[in-house]
Amino acid sequence: MEAFLQNLITGLSLGSIYALIALGYTLVYGILRLINFAHGDLFMLAAYAALGTATLLGLGTLPATAGLLGHAWAGFAVVLLVSMLAAAAAGWLVERLAYRPLRKAPRLNLLITAVGVSLLLENGAQALFTANPRRFPDLMADTPLLQIGRAQVGSLDLAVLATALVLLLGLELWVHHSRQGRAMRAVSHSHETAALLGIPVDRVIALTFAVGSALAAAAAVLYGVKYPKVDPLMGVLPGLKAFVAAVIGGIGNLRGAVVGGLILGLAETFVSAYGASTWRDALAFGLLIAILLFKPSGLFGHYEPEKV
Amino acid sequence: MTNARALLVIALCALGAAAVSALLPEYYAGILLAIGINALLAVSLNLVNGITGQFSLGHAGFMAVGAYTAAYLSAGPLAGLFAHPALGQLGVALCLLAAALLAGVAGWLVGLPSLRLRGDYLAIVTLGFGEIIRVALLNSDSLGGARGFIGVPGFPGGAGAPWVFGLLGLSLAACVRVMGSSHGRALLSIREDEIAAEALGVDTTRYKVGAFVASAAGAGAAGALFAFTYSFLHPSSFNFMKSVEIVVMVVLGGMGSMSGALLAAALLTVLPEGLRPLKELTGVDLRMVIYSLALVLLMLYRPGGLMGRKELWHLNWRRSKAVQP
Amino acid sequence: MNATVLSVENVSLNFGGIAALSDLSLTLSSGELAGVIGPNGAGKTSLFNILGGVYQPSSGSVRVMDRPLAGLKPHAVAALGLVRTFQNIRLFKELSVLDNVRLALHGRQCPGLLDSLLRRPAALAAEAGLTRQALHLLQRMELDPRRDERAGDLAYGEQKKLEIARALAAGPSVLLLDEPAAGMNPAESAWLKAAIAAIRRDFNLSVLLIEHDMSVVMGLCERLVVMDHGQKICEGAPETVRQDPRVVEAYLGTRRAGR
Questions:
Q1: Interchain proximity A107–B120, CB inside 8 Å
Q2: d(C-alpha B242, C-alpha B247), whole Å
Q3: Quick one: DSSP state of residue B283?
Q4: Where are the domains of chain B?
């Protein structure tokens, strides 16, 4: 029972990380109908940005030292903020340079470009930072906060859940109650109509990319705090899995992305705990194929046939 | 091209390659084989990505299926055949058949469910398939697992080049035949406008799956040839990067152009070898950086690649010439 | 009394809260040339999409040549004999004019794959037959001289003609034309009017067309169906329909229409 509870919490915290990344995919897909293959690599870049920031500020040796800022939580917040901004900028740049020129091109070309950008980021990072993995700084200590029988709920998992929750609420507010959020939803629905209504479509798309990338960055920081290995290819698997999560929930659907992420996180944790951990990574693809076979529109989406 | 002439061309490919290969020093003969195998991979992928306009990212997975099938058969049940140079050729033929068949079945299993859906899904499913195959191979100790599969016999009598280039010639001939027929037009129409094609009575799903299966079978055959060439297989040779390399070949050559795929395959096999001194010099393997940059730049500035959609053997200089099936 | 080749019974189509079609019924008799008119957004193209098998109706049923369409994919619908053109022309732009038409013939007359691979006489004969028929259709639509040109390079009016030639090649018994005269100048529309009438006669077709150009509709269509907001609001001979107050209101609002 205790093990179950432990796995539940771990699964939820992993799932909320996937959810944050999946939201980025779904936001971009909703507005451009593009699977941004490079999304996972923006996640990776954010991790390096966090690494750099933390090193600069002298953070990260246990016990969680306050570094230059005098308070551990401040350190975490600053690193989070900086990496979110860095990722937003990177995402904006990618859209501007590689995707926008191809707005009118056949979809296939755009997909290929996305794959190219993804590889470029991975291999570029490998060339710049070497393939040697680095250690993500310990931005916060993992103190056991709750004790239920023999199960422990650590502060780390709770912090991850709490941060994710705050960001998700923030996103929900932004998408449904702000002017830019409304504009984004309009553009997702139809570029032409939005343009006719006077909405600056290009700028909205750029903003969406920035927001999606920032969410991936937050995920990267939370991921790094839990699994401290940073290397140029660290974004590949989480990126793919988060994409699967987005599809499970119904790609283009924000709530679906969150639910999908949680489902995947829980599934992975429990599969790992109760058996075949070598197949854990293949689980995501298995789920993907299953859902494409039985309900391609995902749990919450509707399969949109092409407009004729 | 009549049947007799087609057979002649194939024979010439095989024998010509054998002759050239015999004259070359071993290192260059090896490169020639690599070019041939990559060309087969590129031409087969071109059928799906170029001509039919779908986006498959899992070609290496089908290659792996073929490679390990051939390896398993030739080192196991058919090992006896490979002891004799003459019977060995039969062994190679049987392994090639089995490899292509199994890879084709895999293609059918992967393609049928995914080709019903919109194009972007195929990319992810094929990517996932490639990864699942790789993970499965890593975890299967009976096929060598993470240590790799050792002990695949080489080509009996050292006759690698005739097999590779003979098969390449055969595939090209088959592709040319298909493209010159009504079926080729059907494939092209799917690329141009799938909805219109369907509305005019073309069973687009059947054609897409058909092209996908044929393409997978081609990759499987290439994989078998790969196994016989290097005698050692490791799952990491069939990873996503390999699939991407083949995609780059098809895109660079010009999506839809068979001769473009050939040119690009040759170019991209030779180039990394040529860049090796650079790698030694700087200590950094810039190959993948260059590949990915090339992919992006190509899409931005020359999406038609080297040959666009034309064939070397169709080139004429009239303006606005429509695509020749 | 002619046989009914097309029957739409109480068809509705809903897209997440929007009713594109509401309880629509209409029939088409063998050999008839009828038109569907109505203001933009009336649901005319949605109707064609249902007839063509692109969308499945949310309720109601459609029968073509007395066979139900339920669940059939577009290519199966075409095999039944119902072929449609598209409002915003969907030509195979990179292919030649000839190939566009030859492709449409493929559905009914494709040679076997093995035969094609081996260049057996049966396949060669089939291909030659395809080419012959395609050329004949092109000649009919006066497109023969452009046969080797890239379809995307044709002038707009010629592209529309090619779209029709292609639809004919698919061997329809029922032909659905979606705004065939859109973008045509008066000379071209006049030609089109005559061509459609001739085609109906020579190919034994039943034709249903969507059109906004009244000069084409009047004098060509034997019967009109008027749609607005996804419903049929009027039906009958063109002259009668034209004067019907409901139709006038649909097109012009509540202002009294001038002539």
A1: yes
A2: 9
A3: S
A4: 3-239
Which of A14-23, A139-148, B109-118, C51-60 has the largest mean confidence? A14-23
Inter-chain CB proximity B53 and A240 less than 8 Å: no
Q: Is the CB of residue C132 less than 8 Å away from at least one CB of chain B?
A: no
Which of B212, B290, B198, B215 shows the shortest CA–CA distance to B258?
A: B215
pTM as predicted: 0.86
Query: Nearest CA of chain B to the CA of C163: how many Å?
Result: 10
Q: What is the pLDDT of residues A242-293, one digit of tens each?
A: 988 998 998 888 889 999 999 999 999 888 887 766 677 778 888 887 887 7
Q: If you count them, how many residues does chain B have?
A: 325
Measured between beta carbons, the chain C residues lying within 8 angstroms of A308 are 45, 49, 54, 86
Tokens 């205790």 -> residue = A2
Question: Do A89 and A100 form a contact (C-beta atoms < 8 A)?
Answer: no
**Do C104 and B200 lie within an 8 Å CB cutoff?**
yes
CB atoms within 10 A of CB A25: 28
Q: In Å, what is the CA distance from C53 to each residue of B240, C13, C20, C24, C234?
A: 38, 13, 16, 16, 25
Q: How many CB atoms lie within 10 A of CB A174?
A: 15
Q: What is the C-alpha separation between C55 and A308, in angstroms, rounded?
A: 9
Whether residue B58 contacts residue B244, with contact meaning beta carbons closer than 8 Å, is answered with no
Chain A CB contacts of C16 below 8 Å:
302
DSSP B317: -
Q: Which chain C residues are Cβ-neighbours of B204 within 8 angstroms?
A: 75
Q: Which residues of chain A lie closer than 8 angstroms to C55, CB-CB?
A: 305
Mutation target among A189, A253, A308 for the C interface, most CBs of C within 10 A: A308
The CA-to-CA distance between both ends of chain A, in Å, stands at: 54
Of B95, B88, B93, B41, the closest CA to residue B72 belongs to B95
